[in-house]
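Protein Entry — a single chain follows
Fields — amino acid sequence, structure tokens
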Amino acid sequence: MRLIVAGIALVLAAGYFSLKKWGFWSMVGYSIVFGMISLHLASVHHQQPFIGNAIWSAMVLIYTLIKRRSFQIGNTV
């Protein structure tokens, strides 16, 4: 299962770093899903790493939404 998640994350990262529209939406979904998982685990286990992961997911989501215009077709870095 870890290898599957890692493979999906690598494909997602490639789309995100190449500023593809699907990379944008994949990162938004990824950040929401893993943020929610981290919040759930933080509420169950009360450990700081899960809270930190949720905060990081929120930061990535906010940054991605702020920079959404960079993912429009034809833009380059």
Notes: The longest helix spans residues 21-45. Helices lie at 2-17, 21-45, 48-66. Residues 2-71 form one domain. Residues 56 and 73 are 27 Å apart (CA to CA).
